[in-house]
Design a protein that fits this description.
Blueprint: E1 11-13, E2 24-25, E3 30-32, E4 38-40, E5 44-50, H1 65-71, E6 83-93, E7 100-107, E8 120-126, E9 130-138, E10 141-144, E11 148-149, E12 158-170, E13 173-183, E14 192-199, E15 225-231, E16 235-245
Antiparallel strand pairs: 1-16, 2-5, 3-4, 4-16, 5-15, 6-12, 6-16, 7-8, 7-15, 8-9, 9-10, 9-11, 12-13, 13-14
Amino acid sequence: MLHPSKAGGERWALAADATRDPRFNPQNTITRNADGSWKIQSSQVRMSVFTSTGYDAGKIPTYDRDVLAGRGYMQAANDWKNVEMTGFVKLNAASDMGDNFDWYARGGRHTDSLACEGSSYKGALHYDGRTRWQKETWHVSYEQAPYKPATRSLVGRWVGFKSVMRNTLVDGKEAVRLELYLNDNADKVTWQKIYDIVDSGGWGGDATHCGGATDAMPITWGGPIAVFRWDNANDVDFKWLSIREIEAD
């Protein structure tokens, strides 16, 4: 843990038998390795994690951005909002080294039929060692932060990666602090901050498409689904996935 857990807050960790966890939906076949880690072999991975409330689009009464910002959540008060997401991965094979691992939250399903449900901040660690944040105002409307170098190629070795998002105040208005951390030797101890930015309403755009008063408003609300995602990596081992609710900044 890099940030203290919120007292009584939501938390989830990969179960000993990840195939029997109702809150975890890897959406592809996963198999256990001899060392206790898990393997997934797919060119498109979206491993969803639900809060203890679960997910039900029918219980989301509105996607209006001003309403969501006002009440602080999309489906329920315990939606994933201020969170520290952690995952350890080993990239065994990739067809595109420019692609990346993404840990993201602050929305629900990401599908064209529910475009305004697909909001998120996506913390990215690229297979070639670069990193950046992406802001998805809705599905699909992206803004990318600049790349920064973080490490060497990820192929053939375990690394730990954390995505942290938490609300803060900037000039008395609600904003979002976004941090990324890397555990390059996978010892679960030696974490290095590799990205730190604040979205105070001057980054991204198009929130008016979903009812927002201003295009670049920050995504200050929580959502019922957090996701561990990657593409164009046909063989990946993973372990020690977790999501914890933390205090706002």
